[in-house]
Design a protein that fits this description.
- The chain is an all-alpha fold and 252 residues long.
- Helix 4 (94-116) packs antiparallel against helix 5 (121-140).
- It has helices at residues 2-22, 52-56, 71-90, 94-116, 121-140, 147-167, 174-212, 225-250.
- The longest helix has 39 residues, at 174-212.
- The chain has 2 domains: 1-92, no CATH class; 93-252, no CATH class.
- 69% of the residues lie in helices and 0% in strands.
- It is globular, with a radius of gyration of 19 Å.
Length: 252
């Protein structure tokens, strides 16, 4: 089963590369088929095999010889590894499908935010829709959050980031606000607080690293979406364990 999930993750990662490239350009993710972004030559079947095709072509287009970014196989491998992590935590269940879908959307959102400093509304809507499905599924098997928890998650997640945006006069983008509101449907008020906490911790660590390595200046904008994505992924997989560890260690 692990091999099946890994291979499936590789092919889904290949599709995510298409989404990352085309969504911010407002292009269809279905038509036309995959092609070289430099010369436009349609890719043959053998050139669409995840990771292998990049290695086989030595990282270059067979027609125009332009280099192909190593980020393509990286995204494919990362997607496969994320799916395996989800599988080890959930097993092959409906919950696995939901969390894997969330992970894929967060990965696409992360790369687009890093490249273009935007979080497409379409992705946020999809995250909200899967959050509603997650809520409904949890209601039926009595493993999820209550309706009040979900609504509070939306208000706290979106509201707190809206407050930051107003106070800081644009220090937090509208995409971040909408993303946090959508994630509130997934995690409820307790979970969204953990997402916020983890995202600020991870963001702070990276900010210090950027300053130490002099990769970013003090006044340069760093997209916050990737840190939200990391916090949401960790909460989706390990939220209960993290909260249990925190309360057992620090709350007496």
């Amino acid at each position: 089963m692990q091999i099946f999930i890994f291979i499936t993750g590789l092919f889904i990662g290949s599709f995510l590369n298409v989404c990352i490239y085309r969504i911010p350009r407002e292009e269809s993710i279905v038509f036309p088929g995959s092609h070289c972004p430099s010369c436009g030559t349609p890719l043959k079947m053998l050139e669409l095999v995840p990771v292998f095709s990049w290695v086989w072509l030595r990282g270059k287009c067979r027609t125009c010889d332009v280099s192909i970014s190593p980020r393509y196989p990286f995204i494919e491998l990362l997607t496969a590894l994320l799916f395996l992590l989800v599988y080890y935590e959930t097993g092959f269940t409906f919950h696995f499908i939901l969390i894997s879908s969330l992970s894929a959307m967060l990965l696409v959102m992360t790369m687009i935010d890093l490249d273009h400093q935007i979080i497409p509304d379409g992705l946020t809507i999809l995250i909200a829709v899967t959050g509603m499905i997650h809520f409904i599924h949890g209601t039926f098997d009595q493993s999820g959050i209550s309706l009040m928890d979900a609504l509070l998650g939306v208000l706290i997640g979106g509201g707190f980031f809206l407050f930051i945006a107003v106070v800081s006069k644009g220090g937090m983008g509208g995409g971040d606000i909408k993303l946090m509101a959508a994630l509130g449907l997934w995690f409820g008020w307790r979970g969204i607080l953990l997402v916020m906490f983890l995202s600020f911790i991870i963001g702070g660590i990276f900010a210090v690293g950027f300053l130490v390595l002099k990769q970013k200046g003090r006044k340069e904008m760093v997209p916050f979406g990737p840190f939200i994505a990391a916090g949401a992924f960790l909460t989706a997989l390990y939220g209960q364990e993290i909260l249990y560890w925190y309360f057992s260690r620090f709350i007496r």
